């Protein structure tokens, strides 16, 4: 018998995905700008089912208001090759006046000192996957038992 | 005078963006699947102007073959609020037979043991930004000098 270590990718339920989302400080927002698809990292906060992102008044992500966007967070252990990733999908809006959550504005730009715009993603769908390691034992000829 | 520390976001040139891309082990691929936009982390390798991604034979990213996709890498220091991000945009293809670069297949799925598909992004555009901290001195009344 030989022991073979492999990755196992498990889908995560919505509750667990949401719980993992809450542990992250930075997420990557995928949207479309004038040049095509792009991804930018942002700090964020959560309010109910919304993700709140603070951006500079001149940030080019403003062009994505109204788009369906994806916001991804992950935590990956490169040494042990384990980790998880969660993706929330929804429409990007300007934050309504009732938004209380305050995301750190990051990046924060000096030309716009003290002023920021809050954007929210109304999350319609949240999915996640966890990668764990499993050890499979097999006969030396390589076929499965 | 008061000292105010702020973030400064500098655009990076293509050469520097490419050099930073070479330092990363994991990137986030933004593509569109049957549910809309999504982002998944992948290990990758570089060959000439292409990004090579190894995926499992059943990976749902296969549905993105032919799409214009964005592949983002970053390194963010949450304590000092500095970092950089780089985005490469191009068309996702099956790797041609001439592709030599071998990306770690990550995630690697046990149901497809030993078999992987290599995909390449023919990078058409690469951009980056660096966030650094600057200290601005201002009179106490808050107006700029």
From TrEMBL, chains A, B:
Listed Gene3D superfamilies: Electron Transport, Fmn-binding Protein, Chain A
Domain of life: Bacteria
InterPro entries: Pyridox_Oxase-rel (IPR024747), Split_barrel_FMN-bd (IPR012349)
A Pfam family reported for this protein in Swiss-Prot or TrEMBL: Pyridox_ox_2
Protein name: Pyridoxamine 5'-phosphate oxidase family protein
